Amino acid sequence: MEETSGIADIISKFNLDNIPDENNEWLGKFCQKLWQDALHEKVQRLSMHQRWIDLHEKFRGRKSSKKSAFPHISANYIFKTIYSFTAILTEKYPKAEVQTNDNIPPEIVRALNEDIKTTWQEEELQELLFSSVQNMNIYGTTVEKFIFDVEKNISRVILSDVFQFFPAPGYTRGTLELPYCCDAYFLHTWKIRDKFEIPENIHIPADANEQLFGKQRETVRGGEVKYTALSNLPSN
What would the mean pLDDT of 63-80 be, rounded to a whole number? Predict the structure, then answer.
């Protein structure tokens, strides 16, 4: 939604070095502008979502309507190569070891080393590593987040979908130096009403922008299936 010139002028007075305080009436509008800036940078200016959709289509062997210099073949060797290469890269899990000096008792060091082994298994980090490396092979990037689980009182690693992560404009490497980043996700309308206490008489339009989260990937499965008496095979 485009802001009026008056509101835009007010918002322009704030920046990342001059953030409105929590009681400021323009804090919400300022945060919304940060989101819109990150969205425009990633989707419109850099066209990253469309690039990733194109790469995923090739990964899943979808038949393109565009003229291509490469012939369409029934076996998807891109899919096979990426899966095989990912498996080779992640067949062994990383090993870490806690070292100490004379000030730390040996029993504490042994306990910490044992915690490292059990955490890798209990948190299923090997599966997360496989998915992260696979994302890197398909999209050329991967997004991992480190959070603290308050309920379980432990730190966790989360693999975020590349379509859901929106870094601040100008920070394409996504390092820890990010001034801010946005995590975007869909909410059902009934959840929105319940969470924000929105009355039933206020209409909530459904978000039809599937490209924002790469929903097209859910239907990319090669060509259209042809049903025959012998088998079900993709048309390409």
Answer: 66
Q: Which H helix or E strand runs over 204?
A: none
DSSP letters spanning 14-57: -BTTBPPPTT-TTHHHHHHHHHHHHHIIIIIIS-HHHHHHHHHH
Both tokens of residue 87? Answer: 């498996």
The three-class DSSP label of residue 22 is coil
Look at residue 234 and tell me whether its pLDDT is greater than 60.
no
Q: Strands (DSSP E) along 130-199, which ranges?
A: 143-149, 154-160, 165-167, 181-183
Tokens at 184, concatenated: 């975007």
What distances in angstroms separate CA 45 from CA 24, 53, 125, one per listed residue? 31, 16, 34
Residue 113: pLDDT band with limits 50, 70, 90: confident
Strand-pairing partners, residue 167, are: 181
> CB of 147 within 8 A of CB of 161?
no
Q: Is 151 helix (H, G, I), strand (E, B) or coil?
A: coil
| pTM > 0.90 | no
The Cα–Cα gap between 216 and 16 comes to 34
In this structure, the dihedral spanned by the alpha carbons of residues 136, 137, 138 and 141, taken in order and rounded to 10 degrees, is 20
Q: pLDDT tens-digit profile of 173-192?
A: 767 788 999 998 888 888 88
